[in-house]
Amino acid sequence: MRLSVAERREELLRAAVEQIEARGVAAVRIADVASALGVSNALVLYHFATKEKLVAAAFTHAAEGDLGRLGRILGRRTTALRRLRAAVRWYAPTGQAKGWRLWIEGWAASLREPALQEVTRDLDRRWKAAITEVIAEGVAAGEFHCPDPTGTALRLTALLDGLAVQLTSYPGAVSRARAQEWVDETLARELGLEREALTASAR
Fold first, then answer.
1. CA–CA separation, 145 vs 152, rounded Å?
2. How is the chain split into domains, by residue range?
3. Phi and psi dihedrals of 191, rounded to 5?
4. InterPro entries of this UniProt entry (predicted)?
5. 138 within 8 A of 80, measured Cβ to Cβ
6. Each residue of 176-194: pLDDT tens digit?
7. H/E element holding 22?
8. Which residues contact 87 (CB under 8 A, 6 or more apart)?
């Protein structure tokens, strides 16, 4: 069956994400993506004129997927505390979010690639904005106390990203159980709650 332009582009982007995760941004080639799908290099270049454009588009594709999942979690009909805890648990390197190797690669490559830096910056900005919003909702509803939702979102993100580097790049440096414990303790402290109250919110 012949794929539409949109379907072919989606297929190429998925393959590019997989190849970047497996080989790294610096090593991945147009030929690797083409070979993974059994298509020609020319087809890949028809949709993405250069490797740099393919890589930037692949990260954008991955970012939109992550943000879509975050939006679904935060859009559930339940308390702000439950939504926030579910989002943090999902995003944490001990949770179900995929692609931490991809994002660590992206952060490193973005130091040299302005287009990629914009993609990673936009993902970071939108993630923090979504977390800030649900924290503010919880404060307004009287679920917890947090005088600085924006600062809390930034600190949580910094902790989760840092733990992701430790768990992904240095296996064994920190146990998954200990990392999850730190995440829960930090979230509870930021919201002025006891850790037990935070755990109870998930039930």
1. 11
2. 59-200
3. -100, 5
4. BetI_C, Homeodomain-like_sf, HTH-type_TetR-like_transc_reg, HTH_TetR, Tet_transcr_reg_TetR-rel_C_sf
5. yes
6. 889 889 999 999 999 999 8
7. helix 5-23
8. 70, 73, 74, 130, 131, 134
- Residue 92's pLDDT band (cuts 50, 70, 90): confident
Report the b/e string of 52-88 with b at 16+ CB within 10 A: eebbbbbbbbbbeebeebbeebbeeeebbbbbbbbbb
pTM: 0.83
**Residue 194 CA, distance from chain mean position:** 27
Over residues 121-130, the pLDDT tens digits come to: 988 999 999 9
Question: How many Å separate Cα 2 from the centre of its chain?
Answer: 32
CATH number of 59-200: 1.10.357.10
